[in-house]
Amino acid sequence: MTASNQRPDDLSQWQQQAMAVPEEYDLFLGGGRGGGKTHLLAALFLRHCERHQERARCLVVRKSHPGLQDLEAEFRDFFTAVYGDRLRFDGQKHKFTLPNGATVQLDQMEREADFQKYQGKSFSHIAVDEAGQYASPALVDRLRSSLRAPAGVPVRFILIANPGGVGHTWLVRRYALAASWQPYTDEATDFEFVTINSTYLDNEFIDRERYARNLMASCATDPELGRAWLEGDWSVIRGAYFASVLDQQRVMVEPWPRLPSAAPLDMWADGPSGWRYSLAHDYGSAAPSVTFVVAESPGAYGPDRYFYPSGSIVLVDEDSTTHPDDISAGLGLTVPDQASRIVDMCRRWGISPHGVADDAIFNNHGSAAGTIADEFRKAGVHFRRAHKGSRIGGWQAMRRLLADAGKPDKPGLYVSRCCQVWWETVPNLPRDQRNPEDVDTTAPDHAADACRYALTRIEIPHVTIRF
Ligand SMILES: Nc1ncnc2c1ncn2[C@@H]1O[C@H](COP(=O)(O)OP(=O)(O)OP(=O)(O)O)[C@@H](O)[C@H]1O
Ligand SMILES: [Mg+2]
C-alpha cells in the first residue's frame, strides 16, 4: 500500500463516514472500545499530511508511558504500510517524518510540568488519545494553545475516549452524550465539535464475537465496565464506587421547601426531641469547596411528608464553589468570601453556621491569619474536625446508608435534588484501581468527602431548631 493507493475500503464504513466530517469541526471520538478510533486518528493524520505536506505537523498525546508505547507501535504499523522504508522515525523524540516532510509526533503528557515542552510550539492537528485518563480537562484544554498553522492549513483538535476513566464526568458533561454526527458548540471552550460514537460492532477488521468475549472476560469482576466498553454506554460506569448501592429513586428527595419543625414530634414522648441540623464542609480554593446543610432525623416525617427513620441523614442544600466549566476546579474564592456564601445559605434555612469540616483546615501553616478554620470562625462560620481518620470506614458507612435508603426501619442517606454537585459526581466516582475499597482520589470527590464528613458528626453538638 502506498499513500496514493490508500483506498477508502481500507477503512470501515464508520471510519469513512468520520473522514467525511468537515475539517473545520473538532472531533470527539467516543462510544465503546475497539471501534477503530485510534486507527481512524492515524488515517485523519495521514490525509492531513498528504494534503499539506511539510506544513502539516501532528501531535498526539497520551497520559501514560506504556500507553504511548502501544500507540507508537500502532502508528508505526500504519505509516509503514503506506510509506515502507521511506518513513523515518526518531525514537528519542517519538517523531515520525513522512517522505513529504510532514511530521507526526507522539508524546506523554501527564502533569502540568509536561505542558511546558509544548509552549511556543505549533501543531496543525492535536489529538488526545484516551482523554478519559485525565481527571480534569485543564491540561487537555491548555494544549489548544499550541494549535496554530500557517495560513491555508486547517487546524483541528481531536479527543478520543472510552467510558469509565477518571475523566468520565467532564467528558460526559461536554461531549460524550451529544448526538452523533451533529455539530454543536462545546460551551466550555466555545469550539465547534462533532461527537462520533462507535463500538466494536462497527469494526469489521476484528473477529467481533471473540473480541466481545475477551472484553467481557477482562471485566469479569466488573460487568458494568464490560457493558460500557461493549455497548459504548456512557451512562454505566466502570466500577463506580457507589453503583451497587446508589439508586436515584430511593436516594433523591425533592427540594424541601423548609426544614421540618419539631412540633409533630410530640408523639415521641420519650424519644428524640427533633431534627438536628448542621453543616458538613470540604475545603478547597483552587479545588472546589462543597458545603452541605445536613438534617438528621429523630424518626419523623419531613416536610415532604415522607417518613425518615431515626438516624437518617438528609443533605438538604449545597453550596459549592465548583467552576461551571470544570468540575475539578474551584472558583479561587477567599475564606471570607466562602464564609459569606455559607452564612447566606444558613440564613435561608434559619440555622446557625456550625458543622464539621476536613481536618486539613485546622492545620497551621504559619500564616498570620491562623488556620483556615480560624479564618472561617472570624467570618462567622464554626467548624469542628470531622476526624476523617478512617476514609474507608467513612465510605463504608456511606454505602450502608445509601443501601438502606427507602427502608422503613433503617436509617438511610437521602440527598436533595438541589445538591447538584453531589448528583453530578458521587454516582460516577470510580474506584481506586490499586485499592478497590477506596474511591479514586484523582476523581472529583469533594461532594463525596463533604458527605462522608456529614456522617461523622455523631460526637458533634448539633444545632436544634424549634419553630
Ligand atoms: N481500517 C482498519 N484496517 C485494519 N485494521 C483496523 C482498521 N480499523 C481498526 N483496525 C484494527 O482494529 C483494532 C481496534 O482498532 P483501534 O485500536 O483503532 O480501536 P479503538 O477504538 O481505538 O480501541 P480502544 O477503544 O481499545 O482504544 C486494532 O487492532 C486495529 O488495528
Ligand atoms: Mg484506541
From TrEMBL:
Superkingdom of this protein's organism: Bacteria
Phage terminase large subunit N-terminal domain mapped to chain residues: 28-228
InterPro entries in alphabetical order: P-loop_NTPase (IPR027417), Terminase_L_N (IPR035412)
Protein name: Phage terminase large subunit N-terminal domain-containing protein
Organism: Halovibrio salipaludis
